[in-house]
Design goal:
Elements (H helix, E strand, L loop, with lengths): L3 H24 L7 H12 L18 H6 L16 H7 L13 H12 L16 H11 L18 H6 L16 H7 L9 H4 L6 H12 L7 H4 L8 H4 L24 H12 L10 H13 L5 H8 L6 H11 L1 H15 L18 H12 L4 H14 L9 H9 L18 H20 L18 H10 L23 H27 L7 H16 L20 E4 L7 E5 L28 H9 L7 H14 L20 H13 L4 H9 L2 H4 L6 H6 L12 E2 L2 H11 L3 E2 L9 E3 L5 E3 L6 E2 L13 H5 L18 H9 L1 H18 L3 H13 L5 H22 L5 H17 L2 H4 E2 L1
Parallel strand pairs: 4-7
Antiparallel strand pairs: 1-2, 3-8, 5-6
Length: 912
């Protein structure tokens, strides 16, 4: 038993230890929390399996202090002691990391992470940390808030704030920063005094004042001595795309494959059939029997020109005994100017063409956008190689020397072609809707259009985070935007409309415009003179005055917009590109250089975007990109376009997600055929007409739409093409076909869009010209005022583009064809044409109506029903009209009603 003094000593010692322990815990919140003591275990337990040495999702390794300080592909994840600005805590607090609910941090663990960052994010291990604030935190901030007036285009007071060097140099007032002393720095003083940016100029340059936290960051940078780090310290060096990622089918170049041998060799017109028949034979199926010649000419005419054949064209084809008559018909239709109008519409869908800006209720018109539409039509009619077609649209201004003033047809086309990059909804025409986030939305939409239309990739997903399905890291999105930065720079923006719109048009067009305006001016002068010559004492003075004023007002609608081009062109000196963390322009991360998606290049090769031409001039970034896209072995470019052409001929694509060839898209039904078509397309000099001819001359295309019981069971959705799919007319084909068969189609091509009228009852209609109505492609395509007929039949609203149209079957379609005034009027025109052609012979009238509308003659039963119907309609009209009008009127109205009924037949609206 211990002595009493010893027991007392032990008790005192215990009391001292307890007190010391309590004191330590009481002081702990004020002392630094070390990563190794409390944070490492949390991260290892909850985060490292996805963000560790073996799998660095988003380029982030949380297993070591060095990896934590380096950050993710977006940039640093720790922002000094600013907890709420640190990406690591943002992701944890928003329950986005870890993604699984069961793995998320507890409240205590979150508080530990918060406290660790708040006290400075200390490590016991000695690691070289990047300064809390560097030039990469400040340069984007100054571009956002100051460079509009102190940058490359304007340097008010001689001050350029784009680089550390120019900041140190200062302006007319001398140096604007004092290293280590923010309070003595003129830059800080002016901002605090609300003198910079000047409040009166904010709206005119679409800039907002610097926020308090931004001013604090700038002050901290000056306090630290304006530290800089090498870009390599901020750039993600490890690849975020693996070789395994690159092995996915669509990221590999197309392979030149041999067509397979098939049993039904007699049905093989060209290699397409061999691939299709092989799949069918594997399933125990065959192609459907060949379609008859009447079916083929209607199918082919509508597919290639968007218009039905005339009775004369049908007779000529049926009576042509030449074994090559079908191939000759294909050639004739491909050579028709109507071909370009038909297939331009498909392209305008995917690029998001519209004649208005959208994005605002005003939906401001784009008066010069039609030039791009006309360029597409001309290019397709000329069979411009698709490789050149893309290069002109992506980098036309970098292909030619337009600044010399010699605007040749080639130069004009190349400039107009860049309208491809100006189709997205754009609200930046007004100062109050022209801030950086508004501009970034335009850029994002254009990247979406480019990705889905040309590359078959959903690249836009990577704007805010690495793609969840495809190996497209966030850095790849911003590398891609950097390619376009010389023309699309959110810190050096050209408004979507304004005096600086490129105005290089041909001399011929200028002369035509000037002559037109002179004629209008002369007419206005004559009418004004006539107005002053009217005698106010005459009884008809008021009436004549009103008439002359109406004619003067009507002339105002005939003025042409001054000839300009809606184009995109490089303006040099682009601002640096940064990854925006989570897509937020207020939180820039790592700087990036121009680049293409890494998954489409090899691990050891990349495109250099600082190349020069033989004469020593820099080659534009967009031109280098366009050349890369059109390399013969590019994995996607040829595949995407031949798949799109296939989709429009056969009703569904070989890849039935035409804008998504990635992992979330559908797999090709006939991968070997897709590769064969892609390689054949390139070998045919990227000729779209050659691919059209291959497809439409195949037995697969020429088969009937009859469905056998076996085909219905083994190929229920028709994906194996055991028969030709039955297709409904698209909106434009329906409208244009109605105009054509009624003799009311004005075939005048090109030029400004035809106006539309919005009636009080909500109906939107296109105006009729002197010779009728022009084709739908020439009707004004205002996003908020789509002609009702087109809208009812699934014409798309461009937001920003349409990769694949929907097909609805709804009551307003039938109601429109039954009740619309224009449809009734067209029925009257058709009836008049029929009477002029065959007179009052009712049997001939029925026959002619069938030939024009359906491309065939009526059978005896249909003829009998037609004659009976005409008789009943005539009697009905006689009863309604009584003695008010002659009997000839009843005959005309009966024939018009019968024509109107034919318009509503399913056989008219569907293509067999």
């Amino acid at each position: 038993m211990p002595s009493r003094p010893t027991a007392i000593s032990t008790g005192l010692m215990l009391l001292f230890l307890v007190s010391a322990h309590s004191l330590c815990h009481a002081a702990e919140p004020d002392s630094p929390i070390l990563y190794e003591n409390r944070v490492r275990a949390i991260l290892n337990n909850k985060c490292v399996r996805c963000h560790g040495p073996s799998e660095k999702k988003a380029g982030l390794d949380l297993s070591t202090p060095r990896g934590i300080l380096k950050g993710s592909e977006s940039g640093r994840i720790l922002q000094g002691d600013a907890v709420d600005e640190s990406l690591l805590f943002q992701m944890i607090e928003a329950d986005e990391m870890p993604p699984e609910e069961k793995d998320r941090l507890s409240a205590a663990e979150r508080e530990t992470i918060r406290a660790w960052i708040q006290t400075g994010a200390h490590f016991r291990e000695s690691v070289k940390a990047i300064p809390a604030v560097t030039q990469h935190d400040i340069i984007p901030l100054l571009h956002l808030r100051c460079v509009a007036c102190h940058g490359g285009r304007r340097q008010e007071a001689g001050l350029d704030l784009r680089t550390r060097q120019s900041i140190m140099k200062g302006g007319k007032s001398g140096p604007v920063v004092v290293s280590g002393n923010p309070e003595a720095s003129l830059l800080i003083q002016r901002i605090k005094a609300a003198e910079m940016p000047p409040r009166r100029k904010l709206v005119s340059v679409s800039v907002k004042p610097m926020e308090a936290n931004e001013l604090e960051r700038l002050s901290q940078w000056i306090q630290l001595g304006l530290p800089e780090v090498n870009d390599s310290a901020m750039t993600e060096s490890e690849t975020l795309v693996s070789e395994e990622d690159r092995q996915f089918w669509s990221f590999q170049p197309p392979i030149q494959v041999e067509p397979p041998h098939v049993k039904q060799q007699h049905r093989v017109q060209n290699p397409i059939d061999a691939f299709i028949i092989k799949k069918l034979e594997d399933k125990g199926l065959t192609l459907a029997p060949p379609a008859d010649k009447r079916t083929l000419i209607r199918r082919l005419s509508i597919d290639l020109t968007g218009l039905p054949p005339t009775p004369g064209e049908i007779d000529q084809f049926l009576n042509d005994d030449d074994p090559q008559s079908y191939e000759n018909l294909v050639d004739r239709l491909l050579a028709s100017p109507r071909y370009g109008e038909r297939w331009a519409r498909h392209w305008l869908d995917v690029v998001g063409y519209a004649d208005s800006e959208g994005a605002q209720n005003e939906d401001k018109l784009r008066p010069h956008m039609y030039r791009y539409r006309d360029y597409v039509i001309r290019a397709l009619n000329e069979d411009k190689p698709y490789s050149r077609f893309l290069q002109e649209q992506i980098a036309g201004d970098e292909l030619v020397d337009y600044q010399s003033g010699n605007i040749t047809p080639e130069v004009y086309d190349c400039l107009v072609a860049t309208g491809f990059l100006r189709t997205a909804p754009d609200r930046t025409f007004a100062n109050i809707t022209n801030f950086v986030p508004d501009r970034l939305e335009v850029i994002s939409d254009e990247i979406q259009i480019l990705g889905s239309a040309v590359m078959g990739l959903t690249i836009k997903c990577a704007r805010c985070h690495s793609h969840k399905f495809d190996p497209i890291p966030q850095s790849d999105y911003y590398r891609l935007t950097a390619i376009f930065k010389a023309a699309y720079d959110e810190h050096d923006w050209l408004k979507s409309q304004g005096p600086r719109t490129l105005s290089h048009v041909s001399q011929e067009e200028h002369q035509k415009y000037q002559e037109h305006e002179r004629q209008l001016s002369r007419q206005q002068g004559l009418l004004q003179k006539k107005l002053t010559q009217l005698d106010p004492t005459k009884p008809d003075y008021q009436q004549k005055t009103t008439e002359v004023k109406k004619r003067i007002a009507a002339l105002k609608d005939q003025h042409w917009p001054a000839p300009r081009i809606r184009a995109l062109w490089s303006r040099e000196s682009p601002s640096p590109t940064y990854i925006y963390k989570r897509g937020n322009y207020l939180t820039p991360g790592r700087p990036v250089e121009p680049g293409v998606p890494a998954v489409l290049t090899s691990a050891v090769e990349s495109i250099k975007f600082d190349q020069v031409s033989p004469d020593g001039k820099p080659i534009g970034r967009r031109l280098l990109f366009a050349r890369w896209l059109t390399q013969p072995d590019h994995p996607l470019t040829a595949r995407v376009i031949v798949n799109r052409i296939w989709l429009h001929h056969f009703g569904r694509g070989i890849v039935n997600t035409p804008g998504n060839f990635g992992r979330a898209g559908e797999r090709p039904t006939h991968p070997e055929l897709l590769d064969w078509l892609a390689t054949e397309f390139v070998q045919q000099n990227w000729s779209m007409k050659s691919i059209h001819k291959l497809m439409v001359t195949s037995s697969t295309y020429r088969q009937s739409s009859d469905i056998s019981d076996e085909a219905a069971r083994l190929d229920p959705n028709g994906s194996l093409l055991s028969r030709m799919p039955l297709k409904r007319m698209e909106a434009e084909v329906l409208r244009d076909s109605l105009l054509a068969i009624c003799g009311q189609l004005d075939e005048t091509p090109f030029g400004p869009a035809d106006p539309v009228e919005a009636r009080a009852d909500g109906l939107v209609t296109s105006r009729r010209g002197k010779a009728g109505w022009r084709r739908s492609i020439y009707v004004l395509q205002r996003r908020t005022k789509i002609p009702t007929l087109l809208e009812n039949f699934d014409f798309p609203q461009m937001g920003p583009n349409c990769i694949q149209r929907g097909e609805s079957l709804v009551a307003p379609q039938a109601l429109h064809l039954m009740n619309n005034e224009m449809i009734h009027q067209l029925a009257v025109y058709l009836a008049g044409n029929i009477q002029n052609t065959v007179g009052d012979d009712r049997e001939q009238q029925v026959q002619q109506i069938y030939l024009r509308a359906l491309g065939r003659e009526p059978d005896p039963e249909e003829t009998r029903i037609g004659l009976e119907t005409l008789q009943l309609l005539e009697e009905k009209w006689n009863t309604q009209l009584k003695d008010k009008q002659s009997s000839s009127t009843s005959i005309q109205k009966a024939l018009s009603s019968y024509c109107h009924a034919i318009f509503n037949l399913a056989e008219f609206q569907y293509i067999n």
